[in-house]
Amino acid sequence: MPRTALLVSGALLAALLPLSAAAHAADDPAPTPVDRFEGEVPFAAQPADGIFTWGGDADDPPSLRLADRSDAPEGAKVLTGSYDISGYGGFTHDFAAAEPAHDWSAHQGIRFWWEGRNNGRKIAFEIKDGGANGEASELWTTSFTDDFTGWKRIEIPFTDFEYRTDYQPVGGIDHVLGLTRMWGYALTLPAGAKGDFAMDDVELYGRADQSLRAAVGTDAAVYPVRQGGTAKVKVTLATTGDKPVEEPVTVTYTTAGGTATAGRDYTPASGTLTFPAGSPSGTVRTIEVATHRDKSAAAAKTIPVKLAVTGAKAPAETPQVVIDAHGLPYLDAKLPVRKRVADLLSRMSLEEKAGQMTQAERGAVGEGGDVAAYGLGSLLSGGGSTPTPNTPEAWAKMIDGFQLRTRATRFQVPLIYGVDAVHGHNNLAGATIMPHNVGIGASRDPRLAYRTGAVTAAEVRATGIPWDFAPCLCVSRDERWGRSYESFGEDPALVQSMETVIQGLQGRADGRDLSRNDKVLATAKHFVGDGGTAYGSSTTGTYTIDQGVTTVTRQQLQDIHLAPFETAVERGVGTVMPSYSSLDITGDGKGAVKMHARGDMINGELKGRMGFGGFVISDWNAIDQLPGDYATQVRTAVNAGVDMMMVPYSYRDFGRTLADEVKAGRISGKRVDDAVSRILTQKFRLGLFEHPYADTRGAAAIGSPAHRAVARRAAAESQVLLKNSGGLLPLRKSEKVYVAGSDADDLGNQTGGWTITWQGASGTHTKGTTILQGMRDAGGNVTYSKDASAPTDGYDAGVVVVGETPYAEGVGDVGNGHSLQLSAADRAAVDKVCAAMKCAVLVVSGRPQLVGDRLAGIDALVASWLPGTEGEGVADVLYGSRPFTGQLPVSWPRSESQLPVNVGDAAYDPQFPYGWGLTTLTHVPKGGAATLRALRLAAAVAERAGAGRTGREIVREARLIVQRKAGERMTEGVAKPFAEADHLLLTGRYGEAVRKLEQAYGAA
Questions:
Q1: 212-327 maps to CATH 1.20.120.1780
Q2: What is the pTM (predicted TM-score) of this model?
């Protein structure tokens, strides 16, 4: 949901007409106008100062106008509007972020006139407090009900506003409604029925209450102690602007309630803490609660410390002292994991088991009280869901805060926190961002894939996160798919060869390394067939291919889409995520069925035939796409084999519904026990029961030179040289080079989607080096003109860096606002530079771009993919510090009408075939047909001897010979056997690979 922004400038306030004549108490400050709706504030769009509308889709924003009304409560005009909202919608008076915030702290509250319709609808009213600007502030909310007719003044004391826990995009500032830095107000209008409204004269009123400027809080919500220990609850006074309190503040406390027994488990504590008048902000008092030793084994017990506050705002929740669970077998780290799991499972209630099967979004649980209330098993950060500030320290602190909440549950089962770290720790600003998987596939280097996984794991775990929703093992069969860059390539054999990344993430296949502070639990996704969806088959919004239908024979399913998951299971991958897509197996009579409902695939193929022992996690809200009511959706997915449900904002409904379905006998207790056992097993293997909190010793290495060196090498190895007429590349540093194009100096474009935010963004949003800067750092003599508008005379060569802007998932589907064509600006830059000088064109993109109509005028063409933050890696191959060695992981089409086109197709005639990739700084063997025959014989010998390295080197030499002869004369006769040879190479059939290359040579 987009942020609602807020308020009116100081200059404008000074220019407003005299204040309302409404009477106010003699000791109250005069009302301060905020909005009179006389035209002094324009209708505008962020970030301008003005009133703007917003909504969930194009139809949800209300229509607004200023109307002359003879009955206007103030002035001559009122704000009127109409609405018909299906999702959410409303309007905001936004105070421009470039202006100073406003101080509302002298007032009691905010009020306005509302013309009632007596419809009983609730209208949400929101204000924004603190932070650097209106987009980095806290949201505070309340509501009023339209249950009257005619004009009525709505007065809302600031004490009525509550910190908004369901949506805090920046994670909050200090959770104190300070009122000294305010950014305005917003109204969320009712959804579900048409309506209209009128309002007038928004103003601040009354004299402030000290409880708005002073608050009492505790340093934690939960205080776990070992039996016999003493908990120390620190109570802190906080004031707005760090001003001393003018009146005394008292805190009366008592220990009562909870699951612990006073006198037996702990010594009762009660008393009064006093903060005298003049006490400065930050003053601390301490409450001590002594617990007793207990020789018998016991679950955790809670001791609420109830606080009654006078003169300040009380804490939002009652802190709890918790006597840790002790003496129970599942807590014994010396026992085998299976015994620990069995013991813990035997003690859990159905509701506790349901909690373990539930994953919520961190933004939905606010400060985390629901973690304990619902016994949640997992939290995640969706793309772009980050703490503020977005630093390693803030991540660790946030996750530790959530983990602390689990201490208040009976068995203190730790959370497992997950993120989509799909090319490095991509949600974290300053992390090392690797090339996306399509580039790693282009490297053809399994050792490199391992190293990128290891760097990612180390950076992710150092921020307190033990679980990564990666790697994506889809076999991308159509480049129009918006997720195609998440795939290692179109050939299942290539995808399988890159699954060394799993060991980079997890360590050894038996899971013994998972408890290390530099390893994370990996996720093989998306099971199964998400890369094979047919264009036009999606039913999700405006998507064209993502989340569509994959129609295959059972043999095609096995050979193309299931094979990578078999490899992942063999490598010990800890979790698997089903796909949003549907699977239609020819001849099985089921038609297209959503993967989250396919028990034959999840229970049958994955857990049964393959023997997968980890747990299955759903995709984001995926069960909502299943047919039937919510209970049916839950029952279908769980019975199909989904063990944990990613239900970001509906976690309460899921847990309750799951328990109800079990009680009704529609989901068996045995099925639930299987799911929870799988989840607990991974938590034990990760060492979370012994070490639930973040181990940040590796945080200093995040974004370090050593880690960036891995990303730089990956960027270099991912570059695929498609054409190199006259040996233009590598460039010489003495050459005068003209650089142009939209992606030459844009870190956001170069990193792509899933970078800092879900969709990514153009521009600079993290630390890294653009391709242009990399060229400069390499010592190149470079002149830059993004649009090629600068004069082009006098240059030795041009480098034009063009391509795509960031996108993710179905948002990036071709036909959904995207195409495979270069932008008009990029085409113009290519035309101008390549007409004026020898030129190299670099295509920065998640998929091939159609360049055939310009290929003749381009001297060198490079598929740069999405190289990540280390543009120096691209410069390394441009200037010859490293050779070009990359090979196409997908077929490069001649036209969109040719799609889908993949290695092994009966008809196969792409612009450049799968596996194509010219080299530089590399000796190409001499010889022709006779040499290839000799190489075929040698390759066959290596194959029989199991000499993989020798076999691969022989095939590489044969490939170089063929590429030299084929040059720029690509025909179907060359392309088809050439591509098939690369597939054969990856499957270890070296002799047959060279035989195919002989065919390509003969056709060249």
A1: no
A2: 0.86
